[in-house]
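INFO batch 0412 | record 1 of 1 | parsing
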Amino acid sequence: MHHHQFYIDGQWTAPAGAARRDVIDPASEAPVASIAMGSAADVERAVAAARAAFPAFAATSREVRLDLLARIGAAYKKRFDDIAQAISAEMGAPFKMLASGAQAASGLGHFRAAAAALQDFSFDKAHGATRIVREPIGVCALVTPWNWPANQMACKIAPALAAGCTMVLKPSELAPLSAVVLAEILDEAGVPAGVFNLVNGDGEGVGAALAAHPEVDMISFTGSTRAGRLVMKAAADTLKKVALELGGKSANILLDDADFPKAVKHGVLTLMLNSGQNCNAPSRLLVPAERIDEVEALAAAALAKIVVGDPRADATTMGPLANAAQFRRVQQFIEAGIAEGARLVAGGPGRPDGIERGFFARPTIFSRVSGGMTIAREEIFGPVLSILPYRDEEDAIRIANDTPYGLSGYVSSGDLERARRVARRLRSGNVHLNGAPVDTTAPFGGYKQSGLGREWGAWGLEEFLETKAILGYGA
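INFO prediction complete | emitting tokens
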């Protein structure tokens, strides 16, 4: 176990300082481990290692990087249960259904997707007498959140490696255990010294130092929109590239010809997945005003099937919120919904019946929500669904776009062409039609205050490249 060490220049090494932080199991509120907390001095060592390793790694061939990604995939499979156990312990995802079945699996999926993108990616092509060359951008700072740890680490690390970049990872200090396991995996796979570095710590002590560091060429950040603004400000003086995947308040439009029993159930369960802690969660359910009674009944029935409890129990489908701050935040939003006059269909404040400890929130549904209410405007990041009525298709599109966010959207219709037409008018980076799942080979990212740039697949690889034009090359 390397919880009190950092991985720098191919070695597990002691931190510069002695600061420690407990990692809290959100189901019990008890510490499960402690980690070392880094500082600017640790960032200096890690960035220096990445800078020194960059020229050689940037010069490696496609075949060398493909072989490296294959070795990482094999090592990841050997440690798959360790990753899943760490995720469940550090942020409360139900082990069988989510931590293993989705969270750990998504990390492996991104390494495979990056390898597939690298296989045929064009780094060098003719453009008349000019040659267009795509080159690795350099040293990259990767800052990841606590809600999908393996997914968010892998969807940055894998394309950065595929591109030929070197990197320093700062995972969330609230969910760092899976990052330690992943660093062990990368070490076992033989990632060259200095190419990947891990420094644990918080935003103030490590994240800000990475964002401002003059030897960091790019920062890729996933987190809240508020924190994204701080990252941009810290990076501004050095004019480094900034890629941001931020918050969302995604609309789920049920058109009047949709299969309502199927679409409402899917919308409720999708929102409640991972205790609602998903940046692309369909948190606003838009339905025809004349069918709102029907939708409320269907939504309540779907919610009743959710089993909240111990993440280690096989029957559990929803665990706790990931940390104490998030629990308090969700409670405040539920109280705001009640105070502002939304109809409480199910759930409410406090813990579920029979649960006295842990950061467990009651899965909650509000209906007859107006566009100006707090729960319709702000990202809650918890198991709270808002049902908003609309008059007609134009009104639904207007309501869906009436948000500062633009990460994802959802449309259900019995007429696929109609769903496609509505999707093209939504101002969001992703739109799911009739319950379509995520596609890790397609671009993921948002419009407006949901971020800058794209991740996943070939688009994720492109984020870590610079473009050079060599004029007169073919003359």
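INFO post-check: The longest strand covers residues 30-36.
INFO record closed
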